[in-house]
Amino acid sequence: MCLFCTMQSVTKEFRTYGQKWGDNERPGTPGGLLSYSFATENISGQFGTFDEFIIDPAFQSEITESLLAWENVADIRFTLVPDDANVDLRFGWRDIDGKNGVLGQTTVPSFGPLDSVVIALDNSEDWFLSGDATGNLIDFSSTVTHEIGHAIGIDHSESKQALMNAIYSSSIFEIQQDDIDAAINIYGANDIIRIDVNRFFNLNTGGHFFTADQNETRTVEQNSSFTGEGIGFNAMSPDIAGIDGSVSVFRFFNT
User: Fold this and answer.
1) What is the spatial distance between Cα 120 and Cα 94, in angstroms, rounded to a whole number?
2) Angle subtended at Cα 114 by Cα 113 and Cα 118, rounded to the nearest 5 degrees
3) Measured between alpha carbons, how far is 151 from 121 in angstroms, rounded to an integer?
4) What is the mean pLDDT of residues 81-107?
5) What does the mean pLDDT of the chain come to?
6) Torsion over CA: 121, 125, 129, 131 (sign)
7) Which one in 45, 152, 173, 198 has a CA-CA gap of 20 to 30 Å to 109?
8) 159: nearest Cα among 148, 150, 172, 147
9) Which run of H or E residues covers position 149?
10) Parallel, antiparallel or unpaired: strands 194-202 and 226-236
11) Confidence band of 192 (pLDDT split at 50, 70, 90)
């Protein structure tokens, strides 16, 4: 699923390129904050060209979720920026080989630190969005997550249970333990404390209520006007400060 895959080190099932993001090339060190964009043009000197650009918000959203999957397990983070030549990861469509062949191509430098990576998805596939693919459709999320794995330095895995295995699986849609081990081997584990933000639906107003406070959660659960919808999202603990790229989450009351 990638244009350039050089196996330089092997640990258990997974494989890595021996290349990484971050200020330190030593395995197990942070990757830092990477920028990513949805390409809007082909830039002179980029690693491969795009034939079309990903403008559909549904596809863009799944790419962001796939980046988050790696961010949740390893010490590497991503931030969306406007497209230009200096962006770390750029996404777009490419006419690769028609349906049911190569699903994506990720191009990285042939040596040295990772830089200016291009991730192209085949625009001929019958892509499935919003959940796990069924039938003969190809799961977009798992494919993008696989390609991002290459973009952060993970080669194809020997394990058939790994998302980073070279063969697309119609039953594996999320990163597996072997994939997690590979990411942690390269960047170390993500040790940022996260808290659950619970979401409730107000049957009377049709609106949603969010809270990270456990006492407030119990109070709302006892209110017949609300239906619990589980965890809306995770946030960093308010006790953590100084994390590059973090933003505040605000809550408003609708009178």
Assistant:
1) 6
2) 155
3) 13
4) 94
5) 90
6) negative
7) 173
8) 172
9) helix 140-151
10) antiparallel
11) confident
CA distance 193 to 54: 33
Q: In which element (H, E) is residue 255 found? A: none
Q: In this structure, what token pair is assigned to residue 70?
A: 């790696």
Q: Which residue has the tokens 């962001």?
A: 64
User: What global pTM score does this model have?
Assistant: 0.79
**229 Cβ contact partners less than 8 Å away, ≥ 6 residues apart:** 199, 200, 201, 208
Length, in residues, of the chain: 255
Q: Is the pLDDT of residue 49 over 60?
A: yes
Residues pairing with 123 in the sheet? none
The residue type found at 77 is R
Read off the tokens for 38. 């949805």
Between CA 232 and CA 195 the distance in angstroms is: 11
Is-contact 104 119, C-beta < 8 A? Answer: yes
> 141-191: per-residue pLDDT in tens?
999 999 999 999 999 999 999 999 999 999 999 999 999 999 999 999 988
Q: What is the mean pLDDT of residues 209-215?
A: 93
> What is the rounded distance in angstroms from the CA atom of residue 148 to the CA atom of residue 66?
8
Residue identified by tokens 């099932």 is: 13
In the numeric block, which tokens belong to residue 64? 């962001």
What pLDDT band is residue 250 in, cutting at 50, 70 and 90?
confident
Kindly state the DSSP code that residue 176 receives in the 8-state scheme.
Answer: -
Lowest mean per-residue pLDDT among 37-51, 92-106, 241-255: 241-255
For residues 144 and 106, give the distance between their C-alpha atoms in angstroms, rounded to a whole number: 10
* Cα–Cα distance measured from residue 17 to residue 157, given in angstroms and rounded to the nearest whole number: 11
